[in-house]
Every structure is written in structure tokens, then in C-alpha cells.
Amino acid sequence: MNLKTYFLFLLLGVSSLLQAQVDEKEDHSSHVKSTKTAGKSLSPHTMAMAMVDVAHVHIDYSAPSVRDRVIFGGLVGFDRVWQAGAHNATWLSTDKDLLIAGKKLPAGKYGFFLIPGKKEWTLIFNSRWEQHGKDEYNEAEDVLRLTLKPEDLKEVQEVLTYEVNKTGEKSGELIFSWEKKKLRLPFEVK
């Protein structure tokens, strides 16, 4: 084999190696894309907000779908902290103090977590709003914890949905609905 042929084979080998690395990177991004259907996320990022009196109340979350799965007691285990959505922790912000079940939630931005139970659920407002899932959740950073009984829905709520509704001059409610459960959290602007 002459020197020219040797360099040609060497160049082809390096080229193949570089292409394999590019293909590997493309495979990774196609894996990321596999969490999407027709270019859309299976748990799209969304938000709900409302002005209640002079308070701007905003909730930000990723909304998974049921997709024929058992959610509570299945995908989301009972008696375990859950980020109340998909991917990053759900967060709530308010620019005014709120009174929730007689307890003050100071103006600010909070991670919102739930602990679903068979009969009662714990709602948590945590000082660390920016976290991935529940990986960094620390109970010592909780600002407010409440216990509520969820309502049973007659029909399946396919996509996880939050609503922030004004119910009176200085009152509103945060509503969570998914699968066959609904939580209503009334609040007042302080």
C-alpha cells in the first residue's frame, strides 16, 4: 500500500469516527424528542393566573396527561412528596400576602408540592421554588403546610390543570384537577 492510499484510509477512519460521534449526539437529541408527540411535549409547560383585588397570583407548571395510567396510588404514590406537575417543581407567586385557611402566606415565590393520601392531601408551599422535580425538596424549607380532602370527579380530567379564580372582591381560589381528583384552595388577599 502506498503512502497516498494509507492517508486516504486514515482520513476515512477519522471521518467515520467523527460521524459516529455526531450520530451519537443526534441519537441523544432524538431520545429527548421521544418525549414529544408530533413535536409537542407530553407534559407541556403552562400557567394560570388572576388578579384578585390588587394581588397578582400566578402558578407555573408542566401539565402531564393521564394516558390510561393509574395516577394517584400508581404513578404518584400515596404519602410521598410530589412536585404537583411534571419535570420541574410547580411554583406559585403572589405579590401580596395571602390568607389561606387562616394562615398567612407572605408575598413571594414558592415551590408548590403535594402529598396525596388515600383520604387527605397535604399542600406545601416551600421557599425553594426553582428545583427539578422533588429531588432537592427539603421539609425544613417549608413556609406553609395545609391539609385538605380532595373532591372526587365523576369523569377523568385527562390533563393536569390549575386554575386561579377570583371569587369575591378580595377572595379567590386555586383549583387543582387531575385524573379523578380535585382540590380547591380558597384564599383572601391580606
TrEMBL record:
Keywords: Signal. It holds the Pfam family DUF2911. InterPro entries: DUF2911. Residues 1-20 form the signal peptide. This is DUF2911 domain-containing protein.
